Amino acid sequence: MATGQPGGMYDRHGEAYAARLERIGLKVELKPTAGSVDNLKRLLNEDVDVAFVQGGTYSLVEDSGEKIRGIAALYYEPLWVFHGGGPGLRSLSELAGRRISIGLSGSGTEAVATALLRAHGIPVNTPNVERLPNPVARERLAQGRLQAAFFVTAYGDPVIAELLSQSQIRLLSFDRGPAYARTFPALTPLALREGTLDLKQNLPPQDVTLLAPAALLACRAGLHPRVVDELLKVAQTIHGPGTLLDPPLRFPSREGLDIPQHEAADIYLTHGQSFLSRNLPYALLRWTLPARVLVISLLVWIPLARFLPELGRWRIDRRFSRLYTALRDADRRLGAARDAAELKMALAELDRVCAEAEPLCQKIPPGRQRHLYDWRIHVDFVRSRAHARLAAMEGAPPAS
After folding, report:
1. pLDDT digits over 129-154, tens only?
2. Which of 158, 221, 353, 378 suits 257 as a labelling partner, its CA being 20 to 30 A distant?
């Protein structure tokens, strides 16, 4: 499972998922990464099976082979833009020329920050724009070495709590939230009321509007359906109760999932957990799909195994039926011959029929050789009668 920066929310959630999945027999190896885009690339390269991904980043990778599938949206992870010193910023446009951090390269923070800054006419490939890990960006912002920093993470991230508690650092409010949402569909405006995060310290100290993509769970397209079911069970346990920003029972959800959905996840979220998934342990549940395939195969192959020999017998009978039809016609011509010349022509026709039948006779399986010998006996009987008539017509003794 690809997570994110050490100590970040993806990292913490990865540990929670691993602990619950290992209880049912699924061993999980966590892979710290730079973030969402890095995670998507690892899925494409099949370096990992499952990954946490920020909504809106799937379009940044080339998945022409359809190797990535979405499982569910898990929770809102807002974009926090903190800035220090002076009056509060009213727009991202005011960050032009300032020293800022937009997250690690390959992270979802970098992706959304780049898109927003470019929409405000601010280039991101300049010395003023740095790509720092969240803890380093927090430290430099507190020291005044950065004038602003972007973070995309859940409110429970310790970096966010620490920055909110520092009076000299301010949080940007995206007052034009609906306009941003129309331009960037993956971003949902969230109203964060004064004191919501901490009543005692009154955090935030005033109402703010944040822009929030959804945190997603993604996987390889070939991930076993039963593993997908177990991941969704864990997701319901962890994210279903809701948070200060997420309503109860809102997640996991199909809404906000901008990655083509895994079929098993679609069934689970649409129709609910199956009876077997509810009542069988994973050690048995993982074998239900192979067992289902085996049962269906038996239901198909047992009748087919009985039908195929019958089909073979029918084909052989049909071929010999045609041969006997030809033999009957030849026998009638031999019987209707009025002189030796006409009888010889009819015998030549019988020989031709036998020659044409010989390749077919060579293909008769051993178990059906009786038909072949019956045919040859009957041919010899018809031929011997014809030679007897020919000898009588020519006035010679019949051939033995």
Report:
1. 999 999 999 999 999 999 999 999 98
2. 158
Task: Report which DSSP code applies to 88.
Answer: P
Percent of the chain with pLDDT over 90: 58
Q: Are residues 308 and 373 in the same domain?
A: yes
Angle at 192 between CA 173 and CA 232, to 5 degrees: 115
Q: Which amino acid is at 134?
A: N
Going by C-alpha positions, the residue among 153, 127, 126, 151 that lies closest to residue 138 is 151
Task: Give domain status of residue 400, yes or no.
Answer: no
Q: Quote the DSSP letter at residue 47.
A: S
The structure tokens 């430290």 sit at 139
Confirm if 235 and 251 have CB atoms less than 8 A apart: yes
Q: Looking at the structure, tell me whether residues 224 and 170 fall in a common domain.
A: no
- On the question of pLDDT at 86 being above 70, the answer is no
**Mean pLDDT calculated for residue range 81-108:** 89
Helices 288-336 and 340-362 sit at what angle, rounded to 10 degrees? 170
Q: What is the pLDDT of residues 57-67, one digit of tens each?
A: 999 999 999 99
Domain end position, chosen among 190, 212, 234: 212
Predicted confidence at residue 359, as pLDDT, reads 78
Q: Whole-angstrom Cα distance, residue 163 to residue 213? A: 21
Residue 17: CB atoms within 10 Å? 24
Range of the domain at 234: 1-75+215-282
Residue 141 lies in a domain: yes
The pTM assigned to this predicted structure is: 0.67
* Residues 6+ positions from 323 with CB-CB distance below 8 Å: 353, 357, 360, 375
Task: Provide the domain count of the chain.
Answer: 3
The number of residues in the chain equals: 400
Report, as an integer, the average pLDDT of 363-367.
Answer: 73
Whether the CB-CB separation of 383 and 367 falls below 8 Å is answered with no
Q: How many CA atoms lie within 13 A of 218 on its CB side?
A: 34
How would you classify residue 275: left for phi > 0, otherwise alpha for psi between -120 and 50, otherwise beta?
alpha
pLDDT for 282:
54
Domain of 16, CATH number, reads 3.40.190.10
Give the DSSP letter string of 238-261: HHTT--SSS-TT--SBSTT--SPB
